[in-house]
Amino acid sequence: MGLLAAVLGLVFLCFALIALVLGAHLWVLYLHFGAGAAALLFAGITSFGELRELMGRGSSRRGMRSGGNTVLQLVALGVILGLLGFLSVRHSLRWDWTEGSVHTLSAGTLSVLEQIPDAEPVELLVFVTPTLEPQFRKLLDLFSYETPKLEIEYVDPRRNPGRAERHEVRTDGTLIVCAGPCETASGTARVTAAGEPEITRAIRSVISEKRKIYFVTGHGEADIDDDEAEGFSSARAALRDENLEVESLLLAAQEEVPEDAAALVIAGPDRSLLQRELGALDRYLARGGSVLFLVDPILTTGLEAPLRGWGVELGLDLIVDEQIQLFAGPQIGVQPIVNSYADHPVTEDLGNEPTSFYLARSVRASDPGDEQVVELALTGPASWAETDLKLFLDEGKVGVGPDDRVGPVAVALVRRLAAADGQGKGARLAVVGDSDFGRNRHIAEFYNADLLLNLVNWLVGDEQFATIERNLPRASLVALTPRDVNNFRYLSLFAFPEALLVLGIWVWWRRRT
Amino acid sequence: MRHVGAIAAREVRSLFVTPAAYVLLAGYSVLAGYFFFVGLGFFVQRVQQVQQLQMLEYLQRMNLNSEVIAPSFGSFSVILVFLIPLVTMRTFAEERANGTFELLLTSPLSTWEIVLGKYLGVLAPILLLVGISGCFPALLLLYGNPELLQTLAGLLGLFCYSAALAAIGCFASALTQNQIVAAVVAIIVGLILYLLEFLAQLAPPGVGQELIRYLGLSSHFQPALEGVVRTQDLVYYAIIVTFLLALMRAAIESLRWR
Domain extents for chain B? Predict the structure, then answer.
């Protein structure tokens, strides 16, 4: 009876421990702990007489003493090994034996991690459910292995909905990257598609000086506070997630572009800028400023002439493209989809991913030989730049005319301008023949948001923003002919087992005889 | 140390003079070969599809190690949870059932020598099992270009993992005279340790979760499969083996007291 109670007591205590680890209700824990303790107490009381008798015997006394020593030794060994294990986790060394060093952070990431100030470690709040947690942990362990200046906390949004709400987490696997503790940090960035380059970019954005982007207003431009379909509030939110400050600027009320402007964005004006505004822009560019023009077709914005002066020709046209529609097959449309990009930091991470534009005009270099101009995004060969806008607007018809440029046609370009004194920082210009791709209605389509963010990051001088790539594995393939497959199958499935069985039979026969 | 070697050699001899060991090795070879061949078949199929679609960029990222060898080693690890206890079940239990264990206990050998000798003797067939596992990637060298170092890391991981399972099996064998009971206990304990990684996902974040994850066998095996050798994993296996050897010694010592 005593033995049964003892065994049951141990079982209850084990389950109390499991309940503690699993975070079960307190009453479950107390119930198991209480039952275990009671059973052990009962076992002790009922076996007391028996124990006393055993202790009285000489050999048993020796045995108990030896047993006691062994238990003590085991406990001591367990403590030592536990400490060793703890230290081995805290100070683990690792060697990546893959040829492409795929489980090691890239050189670009390492250089960013080195820039984290000692005084203010970066905190990462990882809002992730247990299902996705291992894959995040695997990646983030690489970061924490390389630097102690990174504090990572995993938060299950289902267990901590309040905290997730406070950080406006809407997607499983959202990372909030903060310069310092997240509850008080001034600079934060958000990563929703977590990969090494994305996390590194977020870390760099929070440790670097916060830069200000101004969206020019007063000419019918898209409003960064407008949550409706035509607004730019989503773009503003995305830019803020890159640790950029975003503000509106009524340029007409200013003598000059503010000194703290890292870049200006003129997003879809539908009327002309004043001459003195253009003058302010010109002086801003002369002192090394950066401007992003998102200029829609058909409208007269008066930007054609000044942009020509800065080396960019805005086409007085509308890009018409062939679209593949489900069930309808190829159709002619005015929503060009682009998946051909120049080799440039802005488009480097886009690969062949598509971006879509809605009613776009062409852009190109004023001087075809201008090497400072990079045509970033090109429409397909079935597209053209339709110049007969009257025919399109009045009758809704299009067709390739003699004045039309046949695709590929550039819908976005960038240009560097030399400094006025030839020595200082040169200006940067980016021109896109459409503003709709960045408006709330379309920014979430395809890779539109990525293109807009990359353009702004390039303008503010973040040269390396798109050049951080994770290490890739070395390609290793196998070339098997049907004969090789047979050989391989024979060797794998037959030859080894057969040889081993024959050996076994031989051994058995030899022993038998 | 001489005594340890003698016991280990005797253990190896006694294992390989019975056809059972060869049947176990052949069985493992068939199962492992099947999993490896199926994985390879899927890979070859995918390469052909990618080539037909001319997705050259994707083709350049296809890797035999991450898509064939590592998943196969992962499958091998599951087989070994069941197979290694069949190798280790007889270590002490058979001697106790046959009544030859008393001879060992009354010999001038120390308990540590007996435990170490028995354990090292069991490691020989374990090495063979790992060797058989390594034959498949070696065959692949004839037809493709897998990464050698990553494969070696996987084999090292497989060996350490098997050594830990062998220690569990030997300890289970030291507790009972019944070989079947020893094998079943070792399989259950091995499975629990294997599944702890998944159990950790259910636990609330904190020290408890970290502890469960640390104790899990698979969380220390996975990095090696991917080509990453970490001191914390090597230390983990050393801790498991050392502690189980100490428990084995205690279990045998307790036989002396009775």
Answer: 19-111+129-257
